[in-house]
Amino acid sequence: xxxxxxxxxxxxxxxxxxxxxxxxxxxxxxxxxxxxxxxxxxxxxxxxxxxxxxxxxxxxxxxxxxxxxxxxxxxxxxxxxxxxxxxxxxxxxxxxxxxxxxxxxxxxxxxxxxxxxxxxxxxxxxxxxxxxxxxxxxxxxxxxxxxxxxxxxxxxxxxxxxxxxxxxxxxxxxxxxxxxxxxxxxxxxxxxxxxxxxxxxxxxxxx
Length: 207
Prior knowledge:
Elements: H1 13-16, H2 18-36, H3 38-47, H4 60-83, H5 88-117, H6 121-145, H7 147-152, H8 154-173, H9 197-206
Helix pairs in contact: 2-4, 2-5, 4-5, 5-6, 6-8
């Protein structure tokens, strides 16, 4: 059974035009990043104890830009193909996917404020897991409308699985409390590499 909720669905203009569909999530994501401040996010990220396979802070911006673009193009394909179909089932799946797409975009934008600004790792991790599940559901719905639209969201799902691992692991390693760990000054200059708080501690012990 599919469900379309108009009040929780973006206007059709944000799906129907390719440039608008692609640029909307990119601009939205970049805007949230600038509101939170990329510098403070990178400094906060480096100040927390990190799990294995942590990526460097500079990697997040290009990865998210690519994922937002793929997300927008997927939305455009699913909408234009689905809404031009004569099948009532395909139309219903398209509209249901549009609602899911809007919900996942909202969950996506909630994560950074929860994790970095409000320093609420538990809430942020719940948001991340809910977002990952919503993306998986969206892939299953829009994949029935257009297989390519579903595959375009696959990198996003893979990244969110990894991001959820990072979020939960960082929260656990830091006692689910960031208040006394995130520093506001930049890392020590001239070190030759980026240091995280646990790397610094290990270095201090070796002296």
